[in-house]
Amino acid sequence: TCKDKHVHYLCYQPSLNKHSLLRLSLMSELRAAILDNQLELFYQPKLDIEQQKIVSVECLVRWHHPEHGFIQPDEFIPLAEQSGHIRALTEWAIKTALAQHKSWLKQGIELQMAVNISAVDLIDLKLPALVAQLMSSHGLSPHSLKLEVTESAVMAEPDQALQALCMLNQMGIKLSIDDFGTGFSSMAQLKKMPLDELKIDKSFVLDLNNDEDDEVIVKSTVELAHNLGLSVVAEGVEDLLTLNKLKGFGCDIAQGYFIAKPMTAENFIAWWDPVRLQ
Ligand code: C2E
Ligand code: CA
Ligand code: CA
Ligand code: CA
């Protein structure tokens, strides 16, 4: 039985998928949630393994629902994609990330912001113009923004995705292919995309210390990416042994709970350099 709030939340999650009425109401509430400031970006650092330096942060959305509490993106991003609200959400996420970037710049902190975009954003082709407008209205250089797009999103409509990615690339926006290894993309298609970064999916990284197959997959993915001129991120790095293994494989960037969990902007700054802010 669900007694306290925390337990209630844990019970609530699995039922979300089953109750389509609840899903419908969440879908219709999303737009209001964006306007009503119920969404928040959390920031997770990306560590340059060689330099031992945080070079970037990934921006991950959270929904503080007034009745249901904290809702994870895996629960509502698919709903946003189905209902068309994802465009407004993506616009909100890029705007919020750029505003945060500017505020950190004022404090002397320069970190590239990595924002997740969905397949829908690539298909409707309005994204490049929107990004161009936001970059110029914030007066930011294009390398301050990286867009992470999943392998499966690119492969959903490869021709349209290629067009959108080329436009963004020409503007100087950095592009990352996310969840790599889970999306069955063809190398021929991937080779055509103007990418800067490849993120090895955490499913291959989480068990790297125990699973020899994962070791082979990660090692050869690093080589493949480097041969294609891409920098490589491993996500889901949860311990030092994994980090050292990745370093041995020549992986460029590590992200995961061993370095830090996604944090609010406030907590991120406190974690990033407590001494500096004194
Ligand atoms: P993703 O882009 O693959 O993000 C990585 C997920 O792995 C995040 O989950 C992060 O919290 C989690 N993670 C990071 N380090 C570790 C680790 O060491 N161990 C484990 N087990 N997990 C780790 P999160 O924040 O729940 O986001 C889930 C997914 O929701 C994201 O996967 C992304 O696809 C999507 N998402 C999040 N924010 C946005 C957004 O603003 N727009 C869009 N379109 N999608 C978003
Ligand atoms: Ca991502
Ligand atoms: Ca990922
Ligand atoms: Ca994922």
Question: Mind explaining what this structure looks like?
Answer:
By secondary structure, the protein is an alpha/beta fold. Helix content is 51%, strand content 20%. The protein contains 13 helices and 9 strands. The chain has an 8-stranded mixed beta barrel with strand order 1-2-4-5-6-7-8-9, surrounded by 4 helices. Helix 2 packs across helix 3, helix 4 runs parallel beside helix 6 and helix 6 runs parallel beside helix 8. The longest helix is centred in the middle third of the chain and has 21 residues. The N and C termini lie far apart (46 Å). The N terminus is likely disordered. Bound molecules: ligand C2E and calcium ion (3 copies). Ligand C2E binds next to strand 2, helix 3, strand 4 and strand 6. This is cyclic-guanylate-specific phosphodiesterase.
